[in-house]
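Our platform keeps sequence and structure together, in a single record for each protein. Such a record has a labelled line for the sequence and another for the backbone structure tokens. The tokens are whole numbers drawn from a learned vocabulary of local backbone shapes. The remainder of this section carries one protein's record, kept here as part of the documentation:
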Amino acid sequence: MTLSILRIGADTFTDYEGLLTLILRSFAYMDPLIDPPSSAHRLTVAGLKEKARDEIGLVAHDDGQLLGCAFLRPEPDFLYVGKLAVDPDFQGRGIGTLLLREAERIAQDLGRPSLRLETRIELVGNHARFGAWGFVKTAENRHAGYDRTTSIEMQKRLA
């Protein structure tokens, strides 16, 4: 496998259908586990193009095949990592790690001392995985209309 991580832009990337499919496939396992449903279900090709215009989009690919992605949004004290996705058939091969390493590099280039992400409270496997990558839980949050914790925030301080 010859994996490359590329930065995408609204006008420099064309496979938004493939990107949408990748995100939906990689988030599908969450459907019976989480409430409220994932915001991935509200994504569209047009919405992904807008995200690529407004945020920093990354894709992992091998010889043109999309294997992973992440969208990064600069915040005052953080670089927010969202829609981190790896094709289910390729998970466990270091693709997520490479995407997060690139996010760290970009955060440092932008002068952001930390990465920040959110994950659903029910997804304890994600909590452990992000913890192994150096993220620590910093907050519990709830979606509008819910009287219970629905997600946690995790941060990773960069050296």
Observations:
- The helical segments are 16-27, 45-54, 95-109, 124-132.
